[in-house]
Write a structure and sequence with these properties.
286 residues; alpha+beta; Glutaredoxin; Glutathione S-transferase Yfyf (Class Pi), Chain A, domain 2; 2 domains; 55% helix; binds glutathione
């Protein structure tokens, strides 16, 4: 469980927050996943938007809550939880009904959540190449310096995750997302979706007859990858139908609305990529 220790938390005001508070960003995949989970659970929560576009996740205030510099963050009666999948696992125990992690398939579910989390930087890479142009997504050097300079601990020790985050954003600033990087990320998804497609062979949801956290997690990835131009209908038709059925549900659809200007920008990006032969399908040979 990624619950921060008292000594990790420098923004002390959060220790007095009672009830459920979520620090999140409207367009962040992990935040969307968490909000859908809260909707399905019927949990009331207090919203604290953190504007990633304005790089507010690198302010001393936010880094004093999550030294990792990432959303979402859950604060429950003054306890700070980071890492979306750990947050969902915690919430499922704290608010048991409806159960979204079945106790019989718990280990399998946690394994699938780890697999999903391991692919997060691949999702980010494809987002940064095929959904959001660099002039919007890139980080200011001063933000990254502030992030690097702010010493913080997770679990009482300096956070190794920070070097990975800094590495990602500095590579992205230097060279964007290369064709090789995009292809390797897309191929990983193609393989995992092959297995997920097989799961939907004889059952409506990824874990069986009832909706679970795994459906929520992969719904979000599918939504983002669809926006990137991943050809679900052609490659994984059962996943495509499952995704569209979930998208019909208000608990899901209201959390993934794309602000009209971003929709327009992505369409413009795709039009340019189509002319240059550099769409996701072309680059990754899907
Ligand atoms: N493994 C983390 C990943 C969190 C993550 O990468 N969050 C992204 C948004 S989806 C973020 O905060 N990015 C910071 C940024 O874009 O500057 C989790 O599941 O919570």
């Amino acid at each position: 469980m990624a619950r921060l220790l008292d000594e990790d938390i420098k923004t002390r005001e959060v220790l007095d927050w009672q009830g459920i508070h979520l620090l999140h960003f409207v367009g962040s995949a992990c935040s969307q996943k968490t909000r859908i989970f809260l909707n399905l659970k019927g949990i009331d929560w207090v919203s604290h938007p953190v504007n990633l576009g304005a790089q507010r996740n690198y302010t001393p205030w936010f880094l004093g809550i999550n030294p990792r510099g990432l959303v979402p963050v859950l604060v429950h009666d003054g306890a700070v939880h980071i890492e979306s999948n750990d947050i969902l696992t915690y919430l499922d125990q704290a608010f048991p009904a409806p159960k979204l992690i079945s106790s019989v398939a718990r280990e399998e579910t946690l394994g699938l959540l780890r697999e999903e989390d391991d692919l997060h930087l691949d999702l980010r890479a494809l987002s940064m190449r095929f959904v959001i142009p660099k002039f919007l997504a890139g980080k200011k050097p001063s933000s990254l310096e502030a992030y690097e300079r702010t010493l913080g601990t997770v679990g009482g020790v300096p956070d190794p995750r920070k070097a990975i985050e800094l590495g990602f954003w500095r590579d992205y600033a230097r060279q964007g997302i290369s064709d090789e990087h995009a292809t390797s990320a897309a191929r990983k998804f193609q393989q995992v979706y092959g297995a997920l497609e097989a799961r939907l062979g004889g059952q409506p949801y990824l874990m069986g007859e009832s909706l679970s956290v795994i459906d929520i997690a992969w719904f979000i990835y599918t939504h983002r990858l669809s926006a990137a131009g991943y050809p679900f209908e052609r490659l994984h038709p059962a996943i495509h139908r499952w995704y569209l059925a979930l998208l019909e549900r208000e608990e899901f659809s209201k959390e993934v609305q794309v602000p009209p200007p971003l929709g327009l920008i992505t369409r413009g990006l795709h039009a340019v990529q189509a002319v240059r032969g550099s769409t996701l399908v072309r680059v990754a040979g899907l």
